[in-house]
Amino acid sequence: MSMILRKWLTSKNSLLFGSVMLAGYLLLILTVTNVGQKKLQESQHNELHLKIQHYANLLSNYFELSNRSLSFIARNKTISTFYANKNSGMSMTYGLRASLFNVQQLLAERIEPNQDKRPPYFSRITLLALDGTIIADTAQQTGFNRGNIDLSALKSVDQKLLINKYQNQLSLRLSTTVYFQNKPIAMMIGEYNQSPIIALLDAQQYQGTGSYIRLLSEYGSIFIWDSLNNPEDFDLDNDHDDHLHSFHLNKKVENTPFTLEAWVEGVDNKSLFTSKWFVLLLSLLAIPVFSSLYYLFYIERKNSRLRAQIHHSTKQQTVLSTHNLQLEKEVSKRKLSEEKLAFQATHDSLTGLPNRSYSLQKLNDAVNNCQRSRKKVLIMYIDLDNFKQVNDTLGHAAGDIILQETGKRLKLALRKTDTVARLSGDEFMVIIDELQDLEQAKELAVKVLHLFDQPFKMNKHLFHTSTSIGLAVFPDDATDAENLLKSADMALYKVKETGRNNFSFFESKMNDDVNRKVAINVRLRAALKENTLEMYYQPLIDLSTKKIIGAEALMRWTDSQLGFVPPDEFIAQAEKNDLIDQLGSFALNTAAHQAAEWQKIAPLQIAINFSSVQFRHCESLLAEIQEILLTTGLPPEKLDVEVTESLLINQEGELFDMLKSLRNMGVELSIDDFGTGYSALSYLQKFSFTKLKIDRAFIMNLTNNRADQSLVKAITAMAKALNLKVVAEGIEDKKQMQFLTGLDCEFGQGYFFSPPVTAEKFERLLRDQISAES
Amino acid sequence: MTLTKHKYLCSLIAFLLIYFYSSVSTARDLEQIKAEGVLRHIGVPYANFITLYIEGDETVVGGLDAELMQGFAQHLGLEYEFLEASWSNAFTLLTGKSASYINNQLQRGQIDHGIEGDVIANGATILPWRSEVVDFSIDYFPSAVWLVAKAESDLIPITPTGIIQQDILAVKKLIKNHDVLAMKQTCLDPDLYNLYDTEANIILPITELKLNEMVPAILNNDAESTLLDVPDTLIALQKWPGEIKVIGPVSDDQRMAVAFRKDSPQLRDAFNQYLQEMKKNGEYNQLVKKYYPSVFNFYPDFFKIKHQ
Description:
The complex is a heterodimer.
Chain A: H1 2-8, H2 11-74, H3 77-87, H4 92-110, E1 122-129, E2 134-137, H5 151-154, E3 159-166, E4 169-180, E5 183-192, H6 194-202, E6 211-217, E7 220-226, E8 246-252, E9 259-265, H7 269-346, H8 356-373, E10 376-384, H9 387-394, H10 396-413, E11 419-424, E12 427-435, H11 438-450, E13 456-458, E14 461-463, E15 467-474, H12 481-497, E16 503-505, H13 508-530, E17 533-542, E18 547-559, E19 563-565, H14 567-576, H15 580-598, E20 605-609, H16 618-632, E21 639-644, H17 645-648, H18 654-665, E22 668-674, H19 682-686, E23 691-694, H20 696-700, H21 706-721, E24 725-728, H22 734-742, E25 747-748, H23 759-773
Parallel strand pairs in A: 15-16, 18-20, 20-21, 21-22, 22-23, 23-24, 24-25
Antiparallel strand pairs in A: 1-2, 1-5, 3-4, 4-5, 6-7, 6-9, 8-9, 10-12, 10-15, 11-12, 13-14, 17-18, 17-25, 18-19
Chain B: H1 2-25, H2 30-36, E1 38-43, E2 51-55, E3 58-62, H3 64-76, E4 79-84, H4 90-95, E5 99-102, E6 105-108, E7 119-120, H5 128-133, E8 135-136, E9 141-143, E10 145-150, H6 164-174, E11 179-181, E12 201-203, H7 214-219, E13 225-229, H8 230-239, E14 244-249, E15 254-256, E16 259-260, H9 265-280, H10 283-291, H11 295-298
Parallel strand pairs in B: 1-4, 1-7, 11-12, 11-13
Antiparallel strand pairs in B: 2-3, 5-6, 7-16, 8-16, 9-15, 10-13, 10-14
């Protein structure tokens, strides 16, 4: 069914069908318009009839209402009162006149507009006795029209509309019989006010077509309105009803002797004319509609061709895209295998690390990069110790596992940007870009060494191995990649020579430095264990008496292998290697014991230096000091804790509390090396120090350098102001001493008096001084 | 001690004597009223001259005389105060002493009751005996006394002759042996018109009636007819149309006026002046029209504005 429909529904058929439909539509419109016009005329005619009938009804209603109005007046109590009083025989002189006055008042009121401002129905109301005498009248001065008043006839009806000509005008009056005790007693005559009648219809005047309306009676007519456009076309006295031009309509006004007569102009020619043009326009409209139908058909044909082409090309596209997909898959496969090949070419198959040639290329790149950025490159040449042995004893499989594990450990330990490569057999290379300094290189080497502390696990066996590392730094050790690798290899060789499980720099000086630091670290631990550290004491002199009043405890170390090691060097190492607390404890313990001993000879004060690092754990340090004082029995005020300015920078809270506790105990506090560190002088007030030690650097050139003199002067003045005692360090000659004495500097220390000496020597100095005094 | 007491008593007596003397001898005239600031209007509720009605808790006074006196008080710059009276005590309130007309004679009381008001204004008719007691202002309303009968009464209204005396005679002839309601002390006093000579059956109400209760009394069959003054008749004819009829006149034309104490001529002069002015500028006729619209028809001459 749908097939047949589709077959039939071709474009040609559609066009044909459309044309027939359109023709039918136009025909329908023409017919409807024609019929519509006729109906329009007819309806207009009917409308006019209705309208005029409506006017007639309005008038009829108006007269009806006026009848009631006059009837109401006639039945008013005032009227009946008058007649009641009159009937009782009362004379005008004695009482009746008052009633009559009220009647007159009533009538006068009723010809005035009422409360709604509606015009009164009547312009004059007259009360007539049945003998014709006027009892009351609203217009006494004006003559009364008795023309059509037949009282004997009128009294037999309730109301009557009286029309006649009076003084050349149409007189329109209403008579109402007045009853008293159910008998006619008088006649009330109301003369119509004509203007409200005209106004009533005037308000309804038909807008649009012209018309002429009048109220007709046998005595004459009342003109209502004239809005004719062409009055000359009408012969008002001879009626003719030409439907094309005018209508003449007569409607009887019910219950009155009136006829409403109207002439109305016919249907407006203009609207007919417009209708004709409308039809013509509709017919003309067919042309563009036909053209657009044809155009639609034309486009439709073109479209179907195009659609076929599109269908064909879509098919082709689908085939092509299938091909494309296959190709893409092939390409990506190839890419993968190429990548795999490339990876295999550049990487070691066992560990997955870059191989020798690729790593060398990377090293080249790194060298080139750092050459431009003037930075250093470190390479580590790593060789597993005794690997051959592993291979031989545990088999190659075990060796492979060690190699793989080594690769993993190295990669995990280093940065992602660093390169870990396997060069051959058990040799690995690590390239570190952008090396900061040799210290970092050393740290990294130590880190790598420690990677092998953990044993390797193989088949439930644990196997320990160590490694040797050769280090070379670009550009210090070589100017290109190849030479750098050679240098590292040489360094490695050096390690292997000196007993493996270590690292070595290519450059010998670097090696020495590092070695010395390592040696100091190792030897210091040994010294602490073996108790080979010594305490020396430098006398503190009262500059006014030149007498020893105290001592500064100073640590000295002479190692069996390294010889004398300067305190600055080994203390710095101790601070780095967590040995400082032990050193501190040793110094405190030894010096405090010594000082306690010396108290028997003289009331000496012992000054002990504390490193800032020691104050990391304030509480334990405080506890230690307290315990020492307790065990040695040294009076707290005989202990002078020396700290450097650097300790006090940006410190608060815990340290502050600790120093305060020390002070509270009675222990004295001194600032050592004053003037060399960062001085935020506010701490001088914050922490209650007792002494200030001017650094030797200011004293050294004191006699020659005026700047130093000024500084020392200023420092002493400031100390005085803050109520601090001043100690001058490093006094080496008399002149310096004299200058300082002149400044009122309290205490001095230096080679001029005595270098730091052993405890025995110091005791001898002390005893000499006492014997000299005695 | 006794000496001071004696002194105190003497001075008190002297003070009382002076006070008594001054209150007796000094006339309560315009000056004193002005000094007190209140004009006290004595009024007997009557027709549309004085009307009293209760509105809420208050008794409101209205009517032609009330408005007239309120205007007068305002004119003088005084507060207005109304004293309700009846015909039996109106003169006592004004003069302090009673006065009545009994057996064609004026009877004066001797007891001083004290003066309560300053002016009687309630459509009081000027009667000769009243003029002996008080001074009347210039007249402000016309009146007369008519005989009014029930509609069904045998009494037939007289035909006016045009001469009032003859009409009065005709009426007096008619009422022989008929019941006529009248009231002592008022303008309806039968003695004033020698009604006892007519052999009419004069009925005086047992309880004191107000003038506007006369017509209801005859409608209630208390009497066949009654004496009624013109203003009341006009109202009654409106109120009960067809139920009553006017038979004819009993009196000559009368005039109404405001009564003053004989010793307050200045107050009376002030009122006369005020009334004249009102009459002249038409205000008075406006006031009358409000309360008696039909009176102009009866007495057109009286209300004609005279321009001098």
